[in-house]
Amino acid sequence: MAPATRDRAVEAAVDLVGAEGVRALTHARVDERAGLPRGSTSNWFRTRRALLSGVLDWISERELEDLAPVATRTSQGHAGLIEGLCAVAELQIEPFAARTRARYALFLELAGDPELGQRLRAQHREFQQWTEQTVTTAGIADPVTTSRALMALMDGLMLHRLILDPGLDMRGAIERAVTALAQA
Fold first, then answer.
1. What CA–CA distances, in Å, run from 33 to 12, 18, 39, 125?
2. Could you give the CA distance from residue 124 to residue 9 in angstroms, rounded to a whole number?
3. Superfamily of segment(s) 53-183
4. Torsion over CA: 111, 113, 118, 119 (sign)
5. What ranges do the domains of the chain cover?
6. How far is CA 127 from CA 33, 122, 123, 144, 184, in A?
7. Which of 80, 93, 144, 166: disulfide with 73, CB 3.0–4.6 Å?
8. What is the per-residue pLDDT across 83-117, written as a single tens digit (0 to 9) for each?
């Protein structure tokens, strides 16, 4: 089975979790969703736990790639940070909505799992460190407090928009938050 088949399986697993939740995740359902022969997913991920681990890693890798718009704009100061955060939020909500819902579902389902919950928290810390560096580059003091506040705000806004208010304009809240945090 070629790596492209593995990628199809993981992408289908993410879509499945994003659409139906973690409990819907089975090898057979992933094979079906990916249009793969029965048993294909289990060739790459022998257990459900291994499949969950693959999904966690795939989401983390893709989301790190999505941060490029923020990184390229932060040298433009606060305005660049606002633009970058808005761009990333739109990506997470529009073309990658299933992936974002899957990430939230995994956090809720796996937070208490000793191994996978720890991996989720480690990935979150990686994002937090990246955000701290980005905030520092944008010229905002106290990057630890600021990055935590921005990450919480972004998660809240994206979750609200995905679940309750698809028309929510996030820009105003992001602008106010960055401006207030920069002045603090």
1. 6, 13, 13, 32
2. 24
3. Tetracycline Repressor, domain 2 (1.10.357.10)
4. negative
5. 53-183
6. 30, 9, 6, 12, 22
7. 80
8. 989 988 998 999 999 999 999 999 999 989 999 99
